[in-house]
Amino acid sequence: MTRMRILFGAVAMLLLLPAQAQLTLDECQRLARDNYPLLKQYDLIEQATDYSVANIKRGYLPQLSVSGQASYQSDVATLPDVLTGLLTSNGYQYKGMARDQYRIAVDLNQVIWDGGNLKARRDMAGKDGLVQTAQTDVDLYAVRQRVNELFFGLLLLEEKIRLNEDLQTLLQDNCRKLEARLGHGAAMKSDVDMMKAEWLKARRDRTALQSQREAYSRMLALFIHKDVAEIRDLQKPDASWPVSFESRRPELALYAARLSQTEARQKLLQAGLRPRLSLFAQGYYGYPGYDMFADMFGHDWSLNGRIGVRLTWDISKLYTYKDDRRKLDLTRMQTETAQATFLFNNRLQSTREQAAVEQYRKMMAYDEDIIAMRTSVRQAAEKKLEHGVIDANGLLQEITRENQARTECSTHEIEMLKSLFELKHTLNQE
């Protein structure tokens, strides 16, 4: 009674355990994206862009600089000899300007209008960040194709393993029948050995298939950050056409970001041609000061300062403006050409993949009938073998043909699904 209670308790616990959820392609794609190291690049790009924009914005703050200077001059300003003699005769101590000069200075500059240069630089930093983000999107999107290949490769291997197990069961059944006939003298030992050899070959093939499945499972496990033991019960995705045949690939966003970046460079180039207006304040403590006449009678240090408005215009940029503008025009045309080429190749590839899907669908329409006929022929061959009409070799041929038909049917289905999701990947459509 105690053992029965323990047994019923174990069965109840197994029934209460949640069923193992099937692993879907969408889940694999999500996990691969969330765990791919390149995902960290988004945060790094955002932080770098924020730092660049913040530094550019500080260009509107007052610019302060401190400097020190000590110098010795070969000559200095002097008064005419007649005026010097007159001042000396009247009791003034005329020392003249000293040739060694010193100053500790502070310069303050405040931009009033910079011709839009800082705004253009800020926009340029933002466009650079968008280009880097779009490039990361493109690089990360390539992971989807690799996950698709592993997922459908595993599906196909699981189908082949299942069919191999069915083949082994069928061969074992026929082995037992032949052994029974051999015991009654109605079959030859060579027929039994031939059937066993095929069964051993099927077992050998299953070992190879399991090894391949293990390799694929390990690679997929690395992508989706799961244990290898969890890579099982793969769910076949629905064979539905894409919602739209319009391409939404991330490369198009990258080309758009590059065009926007080129436009921002043009605005920055134009801003560099405009003059700049700013306020300035300068002050220094040292010798000589602004009152040079007083400094000729004494060598004392003094505080000096001035404020004003400064207008600057660097016209040297006009020399290269046309060529720089032409280079940007060429960059824009190169980007537009690359975009047109990508769209053409994308449409070509999607057309080829649509044709592949249709081809496999048409082939699948015949597969079930072929399997039914091959199964009927194999069953008839088994009866013929029982009545001694054919030998074991004839039956093995029919078993092989039936298994080949089933394998081709499963292969066509998986290849159709793979081509369908390659089409969705090519278009970036659900």
List keywords for this structure.
single chain; 430 residues; alpha+beta; four-stranded antiparallel sheet; 10 helices; disordered N terminus
Walk me through what this model shows:
The protein has a 4-stranded antiparallel sheet with strand order 1-2-3-4, with no helix packed on it. Helix 5 packs antiparallel against helix 7 (250-271), helix 7 packs antiparallel against helix 9 (321-386) and helix 9 (321-386) runs antiparallel to helix 10. The protein has helices at 2-16, 25-35, 41-57, 81-89, 117-183, 189-224, 250-271, 292-295, 321-386, 392-427; strands at residues 63-72, 100-113, 276-287, 302-312. 19% of the residues are buried. The longest helix has 67 residues, at 117-183. It is an alpha+beta fold and 430 residues long. The protein contains 10 helices and 4 strands; from the N terminus they run αααβαβαααβαβαα.
Question: Helices, strands, pairings?
Answer:
Blueprint: H1 2-16, H2 25-35, H3 41-57, E1 63-72, H4 81-89, E2 100-113, H5 117-183, H6 189-224, H7 250-271, E3 276-287, H8 292-295, E4 302-312, H9 321-386, H10 392-427
Helix pairs in contact: 2-5, 3-5, 5-6, 5-7, 5-10, 7-9, 9-10
